[in-house]
Specification:
The complex is a heterodimer of chains A (107) and B (114). Helix content of chain A is 0%, strand content 56%. Chain A is built from no helices and ten strands. Chain B is an all-beta fold and 114 residues long. Chain B is built from no helices and eleven strands. In chain B, the strands form two sheets. In chain B, strands 2, 4, 5, 6, 9, 10 and 11 form a seven-stranded mixed β-sheet that branches. Chain B has a four-stranded antiparallel β-sheet with strand order 1-3-8-7, with no helix packed on it. In chain B, a hairpin with a 5-residue loop joins strand 4 and strand 5. Chain B is globular. The relative contact order of chain B is 0.34. Classes of the chains: A mainly beta (107), B mainly beta (114).
Chain lengths: 107, 114
């Protein structure tokens, strides 16, 4: 099956700082999503982005499908951004979750 | 998007017993997914449930251990059978929503097996 690597595994940011999270995957995909799991365990879909660039407020994501990677940008981080960020590439029937990036934003 | 509820939200069970988890969606969906998240780990797909057909299980998961029902287009259940402490995990229900293949998740069921 598809292999998914996320980096960095852990990240601590001062509030207001910017960061870039990376997701590398081993096979071509037609589905890629980014999720945020908050400290209470709820998973929120941030982006559906099999290719190209999307922005939603302080967050943006870029997927370069031909090079098999995706990036999630967080600007002006806030304490509410804390949690685990997962990328999930795959097909229409199934996606594979990466190992996640655990982000802690400190005031 | 889709609004998904799960019952129970958490439970503590004794080894050897079974627990059935319910998933309710606010709209009709073709595919429903069941995931497991072990402590500190990522999500692993257990099975995909389509209404009117047998669930499709991923490698490492079997129907005898994780029987799934899908009686209609808004509801599904996952049973964790003959539980052991290794089954202690969060179990999550998920569906596609929106215009694309965006997945939405229920709040999860936190299971502890003693």
């Amino acid at each position: 099956g598809i292999q998914v690597e996320q980096s960095p595994p852990d990240l601590i940011l001062q509030e207001g700082a910017n960061s870039t999270l990376r997701c590398n995957f081993s096979d071509s995909v037609n589905n890629l999503q980014w999720f945020h799991q908050n400290p209470w365990g709820q998973l929120i879909n941030l982006f559906y982005i099999p290719s190209g660039t999307k922005q939603n407020g302080r967050l943006s994501a870029t997927t370069v499908a031909t090079e098999r990677y995706s990036l999630l940008y967080i600007s002006s981080s806030q304490t509410t951004d804390s949690g685990v960020y997962f990328c999930a590439p795959g097909g229409y029937q199934k996606v594979t979750f990466g190992t996640g990036t655990k982000l802690q934003v400190i005031p | 998007s889709a609004v998904i509820s799960q019952k129970p939200s958490r439970d503590i069970c004794q080894r050897g017993t079974s627990l059935t988890i319910q998933c309710q969606v606010d709209s009709q969906v073709t595919m429903m997914f069941w995931y497991r998240q072990q402590p500190g780990q990522s999500l692993t797909l257990i099975a995909t449930a389509n209404q009117g057909s047998e669930a499709t299980y991923e490698s490492g998961f079997v129907i005898d251990k994780f029987p799934i029902s899908r009686p209609n287009l808004t509801f599904s259940t996952l049973t964790v059978s003959n539980m052991s402490p290794e089954d202690s995990s969060i179990y999550l229900c998920s569906v596609y929503g929106g215009q694309n293949y965006e997945q939405y998740f229920g709040p999860g069921t936190r299971l502890t097996v003693t």
